[in-house]
Amino acid sequence: MSFYHSTEAPVHFSFSKSKMASDASITWWHAAPPIAALFYPFFLKGFSLLVDTEVSLATLMLAMAMSVPILAFFVAWNLGKAAHPIVSTVRLKSIAWLAIATPPMFTADGVLTYMGGQAVSEITLWVMFWAMASVIALITARNSRTSVVITFPNAKNFSSPRLRVAHGISAVVILVLFLTMHLTNHLAGAVSEAEHRHLMDIFRVIYRSRAIEPFVVLLFLFQVLSGLVLLRTNSHRPADFYKTLQLASGGYLAFFILAHMNSVFIYARRFAGIKTDWDFATGAPTGLLHDPWNIRLVPHYYLGVFLIITHLVLAARVVCIAHGMPPKRANFSSKLGIIIGAVIAAIIMLGMTGLQIGN
């Protein structure tokens, strides 16, 4: 959801024919994200088996599940430091981007296999996919010394300025017509279920109207498509911590939006015929923490809220710097915004798991 005006010409990157070394060495740990992602469902299963008997071990299992996208982010950040990336760097970074989206991917895996009659189990599909990704990553890391260097002739950025502006404008419209109300509604759930339902009834008059809902859906689909284009083009260039986090959050949100829209519009409304209200969001009657399937929604939702806010904060950082704000000041404001996002996501999750102020 980032945007800013740029007068720089698009870059046309090329591959050097000579076998050169990039300025950041690739090691075996750069192949770790898909291997960690492969074990993601088993960490959640461990939590479900232990949550009623060994709370400390169950917490550790949930923390290990949450560490999968975090590990993938740090790998992508480390690989992104190379000023002269090689083909292997870009390939491993792309796999890391994918592993960052592990929570929404696993949620979508479960919903789609259930809708398909579970002809093949979700775990089988998951293990097959990530085992293949792990093999590719390991082979890529092993052959990195023979990979060619990607060179950029004379421009700093090579994604369309118009696309970035359109991506940003659509994000602002979504923020006004839906997202601000939706997050406020979920924050109210931390007070009580009744407060959540009260605000939901008010807000849905707006964003569920026949005129606005289809428009918002189209804007979200545009966000996904344009965001993936921006992610792909920027994955070939160096990136600092803030840019890496902006790209990582965008990649996560692309999968999160698609998974969430599938769950709401296709599964709930058409396939199952159930209301997408508080009970749907919190996995009633068993809840999010004590159901083997629903536990996947905890990292899915938490990171979804946190990274939506983080993505918006980092987009604002780019805009502020482009309009003359000193980078140090912009970075400090961004850190503060990211912390606030983490707190908001935590408050929402506490409410959804039953720890409400009103109880």
TrEMBL record:
<feature type="transmembrane region" description="Helical">
    <location>
        <begin position="336"/>
        <end position="357"/>
    </location>
</feature>
<protein>
    <submittedName>
        <fullName>Uncharacterized protein</fullName>
    </submittedName>
</protein>
<keyword id="KW-0472">Membrane</keyword>
<feature type="transmembrane region" description="Helical">
    <location>
        <begin position="301"/>
        <end position="324"/>
    </location>
</feature>
<feature type="transmembrane region" description="Helical">
    <location>
        <begin position="123"/>
        <end position="142"/>
    </location>
</feature>
<keyword id="KW-1133">Transmembrane helix</keyword>
<feature type="transmembrane region" description="Helical">
    <location>
        <begin position="163"/>
        <end position="183"/>
    </location>
</feature>
<keyword id="KW-0812">Transmembrane</keyword>
<feature type="transmembrane region" description="Helical">
    <location>
        <begin position="245"/>
        <end position="268"/>
    </location>
</feature>
<feature type="transmembrane region" description="Helical">
    <location>
        <begin position="215"/>
        <end position="233"/>
    </location>
</feature>
<feature type="transmembrane region" description="Helical">
    <location>
        <begin position="55"/>
        <end position="75"/>
    </location>
</feature>
<feature type="transmembrane region" description="Helical">
    <location>
        <begin position="26"/>
        <end position="43"/>
    </location>
</feature>
